[in-house]
Amino acid sequence: MLHCLAFDCDGVLLDSVPVKTRAFARIAEPYGAEARDRFVMYHTVHGGVSRYKKFEWFYREVLGREITPEESAELGRKFAEYALDEVRRCPMIAGAEDVLRRWQGVLPLYVCSGAPQEELDLVLRERGLTGYFQGIFGSPPAKAELLARAVSVAGVLPEECLMVGDAPTDRHAAETVGTLFYGVGPEVKGGDIPWGEDLTGLNDWIAARVAVKG
Length: 214
What we know:
Layout: E1 4-7, H1 17-28, H2 33-45, H3 51-63, H4 69-89, H5 96-103, E2 109-116, H6 117-126, E3 135-139, H7 143-154, E4 161-165, H8 168-177, E5 180-184, E6 195-196, H9 202-207
Parallel strand pairs: 1-2, 1-4, 2-3, 4-5, 5-6
């Protein structure tokens, strides 16, 4: 039975994945079309990974050297500049707000996101979503550690928690921690996992598995 829900943010609560994909493309654009396309592909395949880990990969694998702390900080600043205003305005994923309203006060709700903690707090606060959650956990650390933290804070067994995510990183975190997983969007479709194009079917799925009625 379910006693806890954890959500990724980008692509699960907010329709912000295209916004951030455009920001990664702009970061790599000065290095040419091939570098840009490789970076965008890496970002797409590794959704949910911290952007700073992606910057490290780009410098090492595409530019052939290690990134410096100063360069990483500057890319983080540029990324936020490119993306943050759009993320503040982008629509929510269909069904997301209905899910939050349905289970607020019935189950403890958490966010586990690869976005930086300060930025995550800012965006959710400005979107009026902070009050839905008992905990909001951003990077660092990695997604599996964030999910484990949510399980610990909620005081439940891993198998009593559902992770809702749109990236292989989210699914891997759920497998690592031992929680249930509900996939959203094309990147995690396939196999025998429960899945939806958006969150419009999630309320019924949760209701069939929740121990507390509300």
